[in-house]
Structure formats: C-alpha cells, structure tokens
Design a protein that fits this description.
Strand content of chain B: under 5%
Helix content of chain A: over 70%
Largest interface: A-B, 34 and 33 residues
Radius of gyration of chain A: 21 Å
Strand order of the largest sheet of chain A: 1-2
Number of strands of chain A: 2
Helix content of chain B: over 70%
Number of strands of chain B: 2
Order of helices and strands of chain B: HHHEEHHHHHHHHHHHHHHHHHH
Largest sheet of chain A: 2 strands, antiparallel
Distance between the termini of chain B: 26 Å
Oligomer: heterodimer
Structural class of chain B: mainly alpha
Order of helices and strands of chain A: HHEEHHHHHHHHHHHHHHHHH
Shape of chain B: globular
Radius of gyration of chain B: 21 Å
Strand order of the largest sheet of chain B: 1-2
Shape of chain A: globular
Structural class of chain A: mainly alpha
Distance between the termini of chain A: 31 Å
C-alpha cells in the first residue's frame, strides 16, 4: 500500500516527462493534462486515507513493507508509518493535490512542470514513509533536485540564482546529514541502515566526541532544511522567486522534512544526546521565533513576509520538540503534549502556509508585484480572495478555532511546565505575527482601491477549490482536533513515556 | 629452476593473460588491416576494435573463478581487483570506440587510431594487474606513449599539440623519476616484485621514502592527481573529444589500482597513509577550485576529473583499516568511468561543443542529451540513487572507519563546491532559451551516451551484485 503511494506518482512523472511540450499554455490539451496530473496526484491521498483507517496506533511502526536491497551494505527497502509520519504524509498528499492544478505560467513546458511536481510528490512521500536511512536519504536528495529545476525553470525574477543558492545550501546540509548517518551506521552491528532497529538498539549513547559530532552533523542537515536561524538565508530568495505552487510545496512539505528529521533521527535515535542539547535547541527555537516574526514585520513584499513567518513557525515546532526531549523526569505528560503540538504545528503550517503561498501566486498573476503598499481596498473587488486570505492569516496568527491555535496552544502548554521562561519569550512571537498579519490584511484589502486595480478579477473556480480544500482542513483541525491528536499521541506518548 | 622449466611454466601461465593477449593480437590485426584496407573501408578497423574489446571482456569474465593468485613468477596477478579493473577499462574502451566512430568518420587514415587505442587500453590493463615494479614501468610507458599520439591525433589543431606537448613533458619527467625510484627500491630490497618488496623493505631508510615518493609521483601522473595533474585540463580541452574521454578515465583506473598495490606493501611506518590522505585532500580541493569559474565545458570536465581522483584516493588511505576500502575503490571507479564518459559522450555528440554559453537551451533542442548530461553530472556529484552516490557513500564510510573523519568532511565540503560548477552548466541547459542551432554527430555516439546514462542509473539502483562481488576481491600481494 505505502509502496504504491510512493511509486504511483513516480511512474506518472516519467509518463508526463515523455510527453512533448506545447507551444502555448492554454487550450484543451493543457486542461486535460492538468486534470490528469491532479487525478494521479490524488491517488496517494486516497491510499493514505485508507492507511489512516487501517492504522491502529499501537505505538510501533505499522503497515511496514520491506525488501532486500543492498544487503552487502545493510541497506534495505522499508516503508511504514507511525503517529508522526502518517499525518505528515497525509498533509503532503493533500497539498500536492491542490497545488498541481493551481494556475501557473507554464512557459510552454506544461508536461515537464507536471512531471516534476509528481516526481516531487513521490520524493516527499518517500521521505516521510521511509524506514531505512539510505532510502530516506535517496528521497531527501531527489526532493532537492526536483525543487532546483522547478525553481530554476518556472520561477521569476532572479530564479536561477535563487535555485542555485537553494541547491548549494540544502545539499551542504544533506552532506552533513549523510556524514551523520554514516556515523550512526558504523556503530551498528551487524551493519544496518534500518531505522526501527537503530531506534530500538539505541546504538549511540550520549557523551564523547563521537556522538556529539554525529549529532551536530545531522543537526546541521536538518537545521538548514527547517530552517532555523542562522541557517535560513536560502529561504527568502527561494520562496520569493519560485512559482507559487512550488513555494507552497517548499514551505508546506520540504521544511517539514527538516523538522521530521529532528524527531525521527535526533530524538528517536539519539535521545540522550538530544536531551543534552535540548537547552541549546530551545534557545535557537526562541531566536527563530522572534527573529522570524520581527523580520517579517519589516517586510513590504507579500511573499517575503510569508516566507519569514515560516521561519517563525518552524521555531514553534523546534521549541515543542526541544521541550519534549528535555532531560526532566515526572513531566512525561507535558512533554507528550509539547511533542504532539509540534507535530500538529507541522501539519497546520503546511496547510496554512501552503494556502498563503498559493494566494500570493494568484496575486502575482494579477498584479505582477508583491509590494503590499501598492494594494488597497481589494475586499470590494474580490470577496473570495479576501475571505481565503483572511482565514489563512488568522489561522497563521493562531486564532482559536483554527488549526494554528491548536498547535501553538499545545506547544506552549507543554513547554510552560518544562521551561516557563522559554515559553514566555516565545509567546512574544505570537503577538508580533498577529500584528503583521493584521497590518497586511488592512493594507491589501481595506482602504481606498487604487485606480489600477479597478479591473481586478476574483479567484477562479480552480483557485477557490484548491484554497477551500486546504482551509476546510484548517477549520476541521481547529474545531475537532481529537482525531488528529489521538493519532499523533500514539507516537508522542511512546516517545516520552506515559 | 632451469631455463626449460621456466619456459614451461611461462607457457602454462599464458592462460592467465588471455584478455591481455586478445587486446595485443587485436591491435596488431587492426594495424595490418588499416595498412591494406581502402579508405572507404577504414571503419572496419573500428568494428574489429569493438570485437576485440568485447572478446577481451568475455575472457575476463570467464576468469572470475575464485582463483585469485599471482602468476608469472609473482610479477602479475589474476586477483579480482585486477579483473574488475580490466572489466571497467574494457567497458570504457568499448564506449570510447563507439564515440570515436562518428568523430573520425571523415578522417581518411583513422584505422590505426584503433590500434593505438587498444594498445593504450592494454597499458592500463597491465598496470592494473602488475605486481612488479618493472612491469609497472612497462605498463606506464605503453599507456603514456600511445596516449601521447592519441591526444595529438588532430595534427593541425594548436590546442591538441599544446595538450600533447604538456602531456609528453610531464610523462617524460615522471617516468624518469620513476626509473630512479625503482632503482632505489630495487637496491633496498634486492628484488622488484611487490611481494619481495613487502618482505625485503625495512623502514627508516631515507632511500625508501625517496624511492617510494618517486614511484608514487609517476602513478600520480597516470591518475591525474597532485602533483602531476597539470595535463588533465589541457588534454580534456585540446584532445579529440573521444580521446579526452579515454585519457581522463582509463589510465586512472590502472594507476589507482597500481598505487593501491604499491602502498599496501610499503611499511606503514614511513607514513604513506597520511601522505595518501593529504594527496586526496589536495587533489579534490584543487580540482574543484580550479573548475569553479570555468566557462569551457571540456576544461571543466578535466578539472572535475582531477577532483574525482581525489575522492578515489580516500579509499587508498583506508586500505587495511576498512573492509570497504577495496570495494569502494572499485565501485567508485565503475561509477566514475560510466558518468565521466557519458558526460564526454554528450560533448562528442554535440560535435565537441565546449563553450558553456552554447549549452543554453539544450533541453529544448535535444532533451535526451540534456537529461544524459544532467544524470552524468548528478552522478559525479553523488546524488542518489545514481551510481555515484553509492560510490561516495562507500568511500565516506571507508574513510570514517579508517579514522580519517577529517578527510570525509573535506570530501563532503568539496562535493558541495562541485555542485556549483556542475550547476553552472546544467542551469543554462534547462533554464535558458536556445541561441544557436545545435548540430549533432550521429547514432553511434548518441547510443553510446544513452547506454552509459542508463548504466549510471541501473548500476546505482542494482548496486548489490557489484558490491557483493567486489567485497570478495583480493588485492595481491597485500
């Protein structure tokens, strides 16, 4: 089942890659192609929903499928899910289904674009479902390569430069990660890349230069990807210059690979070393929260603003993870809550920021600019755009009843009983994000309508449908979160203890 | 042993060198053929060369019978390392022949080119199997002398002459250094066989260090490693493109195996391990830094070839300390040869196009060539699941296991640096619009390039049979 989830989009991607390009970007052929790609992208979503119902939450990896691959090196093909990877995979699949049909300037290369998106879907799902470090790394790097070409070929402004910067930065992180993986691999006996085996065996106890180096190597890899301050500098250009659906995927899915790696590798495989570094991580998280929020506040470019709020939100995730891995005893429940909150934040941020970046693409297509100051009064011209943006923005700033609140509430509730000071400082970030989103909404949608936007058109039906799908989930998670929390808690309480 | 007995044993050992004899015989037949065949039939020489290489490859595969032993009085080895190296060399030779057919199609006297190619290939093959210093000298000279002519095959090209001159001078210098080194080692151990050196060399003597260093320098020339790497970019740029593909890959395979054999018999106390690690670090760093701002794609490939030698040397630094040292070396060589010749294959198919700017829009004009170039480059970088990734993973693991963590870190940093220049070629090919029409050569070169590209993917995903078999390979007399 999970194997099909990964490989159906991959096969579909090769199919699309073989199709010839088109001279113009409209017409029935394009519409058909786009619809076909969307349907194919939806198959994994369907399969994951089936997996969700089969998931029984015993705290172990479930629906495992495995095969021999390179036994000489201890490499196996192994996929499976637990309470953390299942919601992330589901969010990933949903985000791809809504991003693929989203309008974008194809530049006469529609089949290639769709092929790359499907390829990226396969790689992203692979990262979350893989239970073998080798396999994980394969998908991890394929995701990078796919995104490099996506930004470079369909981005705008200084896209080539941004694509290269993205590629260099994140591949540097990958290689640090690879060295860390090898470091763990060399400690296993018999040699294996199998993730469940390594987690169970606890191969690398804390202390010593070796485990610290392994930890730091992997930390670097995941921190660049997440990104946390000070490794975030690749993010704004890559997000701004990428085509909107690619930005949505980048923020919604690729950043989660980093935070997912924090949990799966650093916390589960090296729990003792993680506990030693948890205070440092907590500080990094709080800095990311404040820095991301304050820099976002200063932005006049809509997409840059959203990009920096990603840095801010990833800070919440890391804060939750740090609290969950903190070396304290007797606080297991609070730690489980913090961990659950961090995972909900990953899912919520994927949905919300995915929606915001898609919206920014719609804005660019109509206005050819991201400058917030050039807009105003759009609420009258485009109620659908205004409504979706407002809802997404409120969700992002953590309004109760929406997904972001559930996540941030749990993160802070959990952190408060472990490190009140960190939680208190982090809360300032929420205030700042609230301010910047309200300011953004006010400038773009309220006030007088500038003359040049008299002919502004509202969202098309495809755009509305895509955004609605995401925002419905945001509301559902916000109002009735227990079905999600219960699934995540199966993994969270297994990690922290009951 | 009497004269007669020796003759008898030598004749009995001939079975161990069947692939080498096939190459030799094939080369001679082609030479005769080229002398007497009319101009219109010269392409027959290429077909003969293909048949010869395939036959030699089959003969090599037959020799994988688990019997890994020295032969010819300890001067030659039939261990699996030699056999794998031969297979890789022959595969490379076959691919280069296919690339050469369209490239030399208009050259009226190209029959003898294939003789030279096979002899050069034979030199590398001998180098991979040699376990005697004199044998190594002979193999290096055979390989260098033929390569020199191959590089200068387009006599009227100034770039080719310059490249050939540079190659010749460095070859002459390092070869004479080597003879001096061999003389010193012979004087110390009283023999030139490697097994004799292993038993006869005691550490500490300055003459030993000097002698070993001189021999290593000559092998560094063959591999394109620091300090004798300077010919690599010039040859890559100036030589006929198929020859560039050949000279940047085939001798390297022989040279690395020979160096592995040599260092494994030297006393550890003379510090060859840190020396090799240092060479590795210097070679990969220099190659990558020099490639950074190259606007000439062939020159860029030449510098990239230098840096790849640096990665390969990591395996040698781990010899004897990690079980993965030998398999990682062999698998890396396979990976490197496939990807590097595939990249040069694209250049050949594009009629030697070498200006980086002229690759703009390649993806629209020739999507298959563009994807081949990208896959070759990604494999050279080490992106999974391509063959280059498994190779680098094995190298990194071997280095870390051998307590050369710093070398693995330097290699990782270098890999990041290398992305920059590979991306500088890939990006315009995909992201820019076509500027000029892009003529191509023909089917032979194209099919060779595509086959190599497919091999880069397949040998990467199906790594198990290779790594499993390479794991059993011995390095004699080790």
């Amino acid at each position: 089942l999970l194997t099909a989830t990964i490989f159906i989009p991959l096969v579909a991607a090769f199919g699309f890659a073989l199709l010839p390009g088109t001279s113009d970007d409209s017409g029935r052929r394009i519409t058909t192609l786009r619809a076909a790609a969307t349907v194919l992208a939806a198959i994994p979503l369907l399969l994951i929903i089936i997996a969700w119902f089969r998931f029984d939450g015993g705290g172990r990896f479930e629906l495992v499928e495995s095969a021999q691959w390179i036994p000489t090196l201890g490499v196996g093909y192994k996929v499976g899910i637990d309470g953390v990877s299942l919601p992330l995979a589901a969010m990933t699949a949903l985000l791809f289904v809504v991003s693929i049909p989203y309008p974008v300037d194809f530049r006469g290369r529609a089949p290639r674009y769709l092929a790359l998106m499907l390829f990226l879907e396969s790689a992203s799902l692979g990262v979350f479902l893989a239970l073998d470090m080798f396999l994980f790394y394969v998908f991890w790097d394929l995701g990078l390569v796919g995104m490099f070409f996506l930004i470079g070929a369909w981005g705008h402004d200084d896209a080539q430069r941004s694509a290269l910067k993205f590629f260099l930065y994140t591949l540097a992180g990958s290689l640090a990660l690879l060295l860390g993986i090898i470091g763990i691999y060399l400690q296993t006996d018999p040699r294996t890349f199998d993730i469940p085996t390594i987690i169970e065996a606890g191969v690398l106890p804390a202390g010593g230069v070796y485990s610290t180096l392994v930890f730091l190597g992997m930390f670097l890899g995941f921190a660049i990807k997440t990104p946390t301050v000070p490794f975030h500098t690749w993010l704004p250009p890559a997000h701004v210059d990428a085509p909107a659906p690619a930005s949505a995927i980048l923020a919604g899915v690729l950043l989660k690979m980093g935070t997912y790696g924090f949990f799966r590798f650093l916390m589960q495989m090296l729990p003792e070393t993680f506990a030693r570094f948890a205070p440092a991580l907590g500080i990094v998280a709080v800095i990311s929260i404040l820095y991301g929020a304050l820099v976002a506040l200063a932005q006049t470019n809509l997409k840059r603003l959203i990009a920096y709020t990603s840095v801010n939100h990833m800070g919440y995730v890391i804060l939750g993870l740090a609290a969950a891995g903190w070396a304290v005893s007797g606080e297991e429940r609070a730690q489980a809550i913090a961990l659950t909150g961090a995972v909900v934040e990953m899912v919520a941020h994927g949905l919300i920021t995915g929606a915001l970046f898609l919206i920014s693409g719609s804005v660019l297509a109509r206005a050819h600019t991201y400058e917030i100051d050039e807009f105003g009064g759009l609420a009258g011209r485009s109620p659908a755009l205004t409504g979706t943006t407002a809802l997404a923005a409120f969700a992002s700033l953590g309004l109760p009843g929406l997904a972001g609140f559930v996540a941030e509430f749990q993160v802070f509730a959990g952190t408060l009983s472990i490190q009140p000071w960190l939680a208190a400082i982090g809360l300032v970030g929420i205030v700042v994000t609230a301010a910047l989103f309200l300011r953004m909404l006010q400038k773009v949608f309220l006030g007088p309508l500038p003359e040049r936007w008299r002919e502004w058109t509202d969202l098309s039906s495809v755009e509305t449908a895509s955004l609605t799908a995401l925002l419905v989930m945001v509301v559902v998670i916000g109002v009735v979160p227990f079905w999600l929390l219960d699934v995540i808690d199966t993994a969270a309480s297994t990690f922290t203890g009951p | 042993m009497t004269q007669q007995e020796m003759t008898r044993e030598m004749i009995a050992s001939l079975g161990d060198v069947v692939p080498d004899l096939i190459l030799l015989g094939g080369g001679i037949v082609i030479l005769l053929f080229a002398l007497f065949a009319p101009r219109s039939a010269q392409v027959g020489a290429a077909m003969l060369a293909l048949v010869t290489s395939v036959a030699a490859g089959v003969a090599t595969i037959v020799m994988f019978d688990g019997r890994q032993s020295p032969t010819f009085f300890d001067t030659y080895s039939t261990d699996d390392v030699a056999l794998w190296a031969k297979l890789i060399i022959l595969a490379a030779t076959i691919a280069v022949i296919a690339l050469s057919i369209p490239w030399f199609a208009r050259d009226p006297r190209h029959g003898e080119y294939y003789t030279l190619l096979l002899f050069s290939s034979l030199g590398a093959v001998l180098l991979a199997g040699a376990t005697d210093l004199m044998e190594i000298v002979m193999a290096i000279v055979l390989s260098s002398a033929t390569s020199y002519v191959l590089i200068a095959y387009h006599r009227r090209s100034k770039l080719a002459s310059e490249a050939a001159m540079k190659y010749f001078l460095i070859a002459a210098l390092t070869s004479s250094a080597m003879l001096l080194g061999v003389a010193l080692l012979f004087g110390l151990a009283g023999t030139t066989t490697l097994s004799g050196l292993r038993d006869g060399l005691s550490d500490g003597a300055v003459a030993l260090i000097v002698g070993a260093a001189l021999v290593i320098t000559a092998l560094a020339f063959k591999m394109g490693s620091v300090p004798a790497h300077a010919w690599m970019p010039d040859v890559a740029q100036g030589a006929p493109a198929p020859v560039a593909a050949f000279v940047t890959t085939v001798p390297k395979v022989g040279g690395l195996v020979a160096l592995a054999r040599l260092v494994s018999v030297l006393p550890v106390t003379i510090g060859w391990r840190p020396l090799v690690a240092l060479l590795a670090a210097a070679t990969m760093t220099l190659g990558n830094l020099a490639a950074l701002w190259q606007d000439d794609v062939r020159r860029l490939l030449g510098w990239s070839a230098v840096s790849q030698t640096g990665y390969a040397l990591m395996a040698l630094a781990a010899l004897g300390r990690s079980d993965l040292a030998i398999p990682s070396l062999l698998y890396f060589l396979l990976a490197y040869v496939l990807a590097n010749i595939a990249a040069f294959g694209v250049v050949v198919e594009l009629r030697g196009r070498t200006d980086r700017a002229s690759y703009a829009g390649l993806a629209r004009a020739h999507p298959l060539l563009a994807i081949s170039l990208v896959i070759a480059f990604l494999s050279l970088i080490g992106i999974p699941p391509l063959v280059g990734f498994g190779a680098k993973l094995a190298l990194f693991t071997a280095a870390i296991e051998a307590n050369y963590e710093w070398l693995a870190v330097i290699a990782a940093i270098n890999t990041v640096v290398s992305i920059f220049y590979y991306a500088r070629v890939m990006a315009p090919a995909y992201f820019d619009e076509m500027t000029t029409p892009v003529p191509v050569l023909g089917e032979w070169a194209a099919s060779a390039t595509y086959s190599l590209t497919i091999a880069v993917i397949v040998t990467g995903i199906a790594a198990e049979p290779f790594l499993n078999a390479m794991r059993a390979a011995l390095l004699l007399p080790g």
